[in-house]
Design a protein that fits this description.
single chain; 123 residues; alpha/beta; 4 helices
Length: 123
Amino acid sequence: MKKVAVIHTTPVTIPTLKKLLTENRRPDEEEIEVINFLDDSMLPEINRLGHPSEGVKYRLNTLLLLCQTTGADAVLCACSSIGGLVEEGSSLVGIPVFRIDEPWRALLPVIPASGWRRPSIQR
């Protein structure tokens, strides 16, 4: 079983990303366990200040280290507002760290392709 830790800055993304990561798996592919980490104080702070503060950077780095302690195979950051900090903080951990605004193809070595299908929009 593959394990992906997801860092969220809003609870809204938790069910959608969990569903996206765990459904649509082919029978021959490993299951994916999703572990969610949420800090809903980061995005309001960034919006209030107009930029990520040192406190946001510190909390994100702490979350990245926590993700690694779970035995995750990879980390996905679900907020594009902290993307630059994610790139800086990724050097703190020994597992791949991805941004939600990166091409999804970059995740394929870690997660089976069928686990990353974009959801179809029902009209």
